[in-house]
Amino acid sequence: METILSALWSEHRSIAAVLHGMLYLVREKCERGKPIETRVLRAMLYYLDVFPERVHHPKEEQFLFKAVRARTSEANPLLDELAREHAEGKEALRRIDQALLRYEEGGEAEFAQFAQALEDFAGGYRDHMRKEEEVVMGAARRALSKDDWSTLQREWALHGDPIAEEAAREGYERLINRIVELAPPPIGLGCGTELALAPKRRPRQPKTN
Fold first, then answer.
1. What percentage of the chain carries pLDDT values higher than 90?
2. Res. 172 pLDDT band, cuts 50 70 90
3. What is the distance between the alpha carbons of residues 143 and 141, in angstroms, rounded to a whole number?
4. Torsion-angle region of residue 144: left (phi > 0), alpha (psi -120 to 50) or beta?
5. Of 70, 139, 165, 191, whose CB has the highest number of CB atoms within 10 Å?
């Protein structure tokens, strides 16, 4: 149980770190007038596209959501909502990308709109992950038997091509390292690399009561 849930929880922390980095840069400009290097934001948006959208969300639906649906209906309305949010993820990223492009091309007159769009996007993303962690993972702990977890673990281990997955993981790590190189302190180099969180190492998820 802990292997799968901890893996997904750890991936959430990687996503949350990137969201934090984006908000930090925007808030520093709002509050202190610090200029933003927009290529850092673009690298962060690219990460949110290639990792959560293409890898993390499909795994959640294929393994965690499917297993919970098979054993209980208590989370079905929320699972439907979360699946819709996954499906809408590409469009949400496109809107942020367009807001960033307007800021890049239109200058300061477009910054406030971009900043608000990012705040809304990050807030929605954090709420999405909170629902998964508090409700869906909780439902999985209550509803799935030891045999269910064993079956799920075998399916998880067999998922995908290990060589391709390792290559992809290395690509995500390079992207995270690139973000850290580009971002100014304290989110980039010199800060203890808060953003250097890739799905390679997966700390155990704190158990909930």
1. 58
2. low
3. 6
4. beta
5. 139
Nearest to 184 by CA among 30, 6, 12, 36: 36
pTM for the full predicted model: 0.80
Which residue in 167, 178, 188, 202 sits closest to 45, CA to CA? 178
Question: How far is the C-alpha of 177 from the C-alpha of 62, rounded, in Å?
Answer: 29
- Residue 201 neighbours by CB under 8 Å, 6+ apart: 10
End-to-end CA distance of the chain: 15
φ, ψ at 109 (rounded to 5°): -65, -20
Closest CA to 41 of 15, 11, 21: 21
Rounded Cα gap, residues 185 and 45, in angstroms: 19
Q: What is the pLDDT of residues 64-81, one digit of tens each?
A: 999 999 999 999 999 999
Question: For domain 2-182, which architecture applies?
Answer: Up-down Bundle (1.20)
Contact call for residues 77 and 62 (beta carbons, < 8 A): no
In the structure, how many helices (H) and strands (E) does the chain have? Answer: 10, 0
Contact criterion met (CB below 8 Å) for 66 and 60: no
- Determine the length of the chain: 209
User: pLDDT at residue 152 above 60?
Assistant: yes
